[in-house]
Write a structure and sequence with these properties.
heterodimer, A: alpha/beta, Rossmann fold, Alpha-Beta Plaits, four-stranded antiparallel β-sheet, 11 helices, 14 strands
């Protein structure tokens, strides 16, 4: 669907994107993740024709952004960050203006705008001026704007920023619904958003792609590390440590005491060793108070991949 | 075909926008008060049934008024960010520039409409020669369009509307006054600056002479203004 190769963009001396290569398939929801200033917005602006690349090629369905930008724009619906829609227009007038430019025939326009109002929950504010609307509603107008022509590709720059939790849930629901048929690219720095909506995550840092895969793949790929937390009673610290460290697959044991309980943390590789650990404890006849496995959180992976230096 | 339709959609939005906000009414009022006062304050002293007085001051009035019409066209969109939404829809830079230019030019033409009353009242009072009057109005529409192109260029340069206004005003004012400011230059050079000056060509039209050279002049100013606007807007990418 979208092929990006060697995409580079400078703002003066500042390199915002540094030779990005990315292929985006049809019918997926791709999350672009990265700290502020990583290059997410720049990448989206190039895809939508707002900015020109300094170097590199982008093709969308075989069309090149150098030559066929107008054709590409027809395929793409774009919601820029903070949805800067015309403030002085009434919602209905605005959507009808967009429908005109998007070439929706006059006889289908009303039905289309009604449909958009339905999907985006704009029914009540259709005849209000946009500058009177709250941020959440303005965001929905922006989303309706992006979906006006029923585009095959939807590019959303921080679609849920500034919304309250209910609105966030609603917008995510809308995005998931659209993502079943369309290609969606969304940027965010909220990690739970990625987990909730995206099929694939691309993490960008300082203009480079530092990770690419599904959320599960990213977790597994992050050094394949996990840990098991235990709480035992009736066990001597040294003995327990030695016994557990002897289990195949355990790379290290950390111990500590609180409230008379012995707390242990077993560091292990990707292998699932829970059964072995349980058997080892049962053999010793210790009392097991707590047993939990912890995989690396996306937050941790994110901060490791994008930390300074 | 689709491109022409897009120009018309953008034109329609921009033109209607003038009347959604109070700007249009304020600008038209100021324009009519200024021109009305300049015209009628001396009209009865001259005791001549002609519009020359009105037309002789029009370029100066326009060089202040037209930039107020054009200043927001790009600057406001840059500032609010809606420009990003506009250009990521399937339109070309050319569609955007043309649509906005036509809206400003149409608005200045519309602004002239109420002043036809001057011509009609002069016609009642005396024997108005309608040739120069008609020539003057055609010239005024062309002058308004040329200044709109200049103002549009100024607006494309900055996201600050005040700066856009000042740049537009300076360029329009310079185009109007250049041959009068440089009166001390020797004849041939003055002739050259006269040719660059908008006032000279406009006053030709206001005499009722529609020469192809004057038409070509206004067409060139419009073309250069729009082309420069296109370059500036593309360079922002």
């Amino acid at each position: 669907m979208i092929e990006i190769s060697g995409l580079t963009r400078y703002y003066g001396d500042l390199c915002a994107l540094d030779h990005i290569d990315l292929t985006i398939e049809k019918g997926r929801i791709l999350g672009l993740l990265g700290p502020n200033g990583a290059g997410k917005t720049t990448a989206m602006r190039i895809l939508t024709g707002y900015l020109a690349p300094t170097e590199g090629d982008v093709t969308v369905k075989g069309l090149s952004i150098d030559r066929d930008m107008v054709e590409i724009k027809k395929l793409i619906g774009y919601l820029p960050e903070s949805a800067p829609v015309y403030q002085d227009m009434i919602v209905y007038d605005y959507l009808s203006y967009v429908a005109d430019i998007r070439g929706i025939p006059a006889d289908g326009r009303l039905a289309r705008i009604r449909g958009l109002a339905e999907i985006c929950g704009l029914g009540e504010v259709m005849h209000r001026s946009i500058h009177e609307l709250s941020k959440g509603y303005r965001q929905r107008v922006g989303l309706a704007h992006a979906m006006t022509a029923d585009p095959q590709i939807l590019i959303l720059d921080e679609p849920t920023s500034g919304l309250d939790p209910n609105q966030i849930a609603e917008i995510r629901e809308i995005i998931r619904k659209i993502g079943r048929e369309k290609t969606v690219i969304l940027s965010t720095h909220i990690l739970s958003e990625v987990e909730a909506t995206c099929d694939r995550v691309v993490i960008i840092n300082r203009g480079k792609i530092v990770a690419d895969g599904s959320t599960d793949e990213l977790r597994r790929g992050a050094e394949g590390e996990c840990s098991i937390n235990l709480s035992l009673a009736g066990a001597a610290e040294k003995e327990a440590k030695a016994a557990l460290a002897a289990i195949p697959g355990v790379a290290g044991v950390e111990t500590g005491r609180s409230n008379g309980e012995l707390r242990l943390r077993l560091i292990c590789g990707g292998e699932d060793i829970r059964e072995r650990v349980y058997r080892a404890i049962r053999e010793k006849d210790w009392i097991l108070l707590e047993f939990s496995r912890e995989t690396k959180s996306l937050e941790k992976i994110f901060s490791e991949l994008t930390k300074e230096g | 075909m689709a491109a022409a339709a897009n120009v018309m959609h953008i034109f329609g939005r921009e033109f209607r926008h003038y009347f959604i906000t109070p700007i249009a009414y304020i600008v038209i009022s100021i324009f009519l008060i200024l021109t009305g006062w300049f015209f009628f304050s001396t009209f009865f002293l001259y005791n001549q049934a002609e519009l020359r007085n009105f037309f002789s001051l029009l370029p100066i009035v326009f060089s202040f008024i037209v930039p107020t019409v054009t200043m927001r066209l790009f600057a406001e969109e840059y500032n609010v960010g809606s420009y990003e939404i506009l250009v990521t829809m399937p339109v070309t830079t050319r569609d955007v520039v043309l649509g906005k230019f036509l809206a400003a030019a149409a608005f200045t033409a519309l602004m002239l409409l109420p002043t036809v009353v001057y011509a009609v009242s002069v016609g009642f009072l005396g024997d108005l020669d309608w040739g120069p009057a008609a020539g003057g109005y055609i010239g005024a529409v062309l002058l308004g369009a040329a200044f709109s192109a200049v103002g549009l260029f100024a607006s494309a340069l900055t996201k600050n509307q005040i700066i856009a206004f000042i740049i537009g005003m300076i360029v329009c004012f310079a185009l109007t006054m250049i041959d009068k400011i440089l009166f001390f230059l020797p004849g041939p050079m003055l002739g050259f600056f006269e040719y660059i000056g908008a006032d000279y060509h406009f006053q030709n039209a206001a005499k009722g002479i529609l020469d192809s050279r004057d038409l070509l002049y206004f067409a060139s100013v419009i073309f250069v203004g729009l082309f420069a606007t296109h370059l500036v807007v593309e360079a922002r990418k």
